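Q: I have 366 residues here and want to know how they pack in 3D. Can you give me a structure?
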Amino acid sequence: MCRSYQKIDRRKSRAIHLGNVKIGGGAPISVQTMTNTITSDVNSTLSQIDRVRNVGADIVRVSVPDQESSSALKKICKKSKIPIIADVHFHYKRAIESAINGASCLRINPGNIGSKEKIKDVIKAAKDNNCAIRIGVNGGSLERKILEKYQEPVPEALVESATDNIKILEDNNFFNFKISVKASDVFLATKAYEILANKCDYPLHLGITEAGGRRSGSVKSSIGIGKLLLMGIGDTIRVSLSDEPEEEVKVAYDILKSLSLRHRGVKIISCPSCARQQFPVVETIRKLEKSLEDISAPITISIIGCVVNGPGEATMTNVGITGGGNNTHMVYINGKKDHRIKNEDLPTYLEDIVRKEAKNQIVNKL
């Protein structure tokens, strides 16, 4: 319902598949997160995977630090309803075991896996098991020779690491991969992605690594990931927060919704409130954000406390309310005045309307 006045011209990239999820090649930008359970605790890990899937995760990554974890992937990959990425560092056998046990992708840095023979073994396991690879370059763990050359992590260092690892895979006739060049510094990460985007056409996984807690990490990620997406760069994203994985997924969708790149769940347009407000806007928004979290249908609502901007905003949303005098407010449905209400419990009343509109959208698609 809400109009967008600019279309982002996305970078053209080749497509790969992680299970049934297409990445690159013009596919919708996928959202992923990472479990923080002990992977060998299968039930806890699967429970968390279900929770992140319910809030919209397309893909989920799990740590594989030991053989118990790679063995657990047999059950996890079989029961998970979304593709699993195995996060492996240093232990090439864990990568091989993960591919054999059902992982849809291996997150590795070929440069720290070991000898060329070990890398070839990992690539063979990926080929034999239809498993993709993510080359995961990180500003905090660059190869020694590259750090010695550049003295510190700089964009060119991250890109050189990425291109070196790309060559390793290409030399082994493997092209089913995506790349990331993450850093905790927004400027370092975004510049590295800009350079890399012009050097290859492989899908790019975006993220600002170790971004921080929920508030500060969301801000950093929004600036970094948002800048790249506005430039058309990026095929899949993860928001890295020191918080629960579900929060990473929610913030990722907020970024994508803000740029009209994906529409999932409720998008709220609301005023910050002032002395003109005719109902408690902040309290209403707080309650609605909580109560509407489970809705996946793309619904836009406007909650404006007075008539200054309220009518204009309401004409561009699925559901809108504008505060009026004498505790009487105007409700809009799909951009048009629908009815007035008075002395209602607004959060509950608006939740019911939004749920009806979400149900209508689902029925209309059938």
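Q: Anything worth noting?
A: Residues 165 and 352 are 53 Å apart (CA to CA). Residues 346-365 form the longest helix (20 residues).
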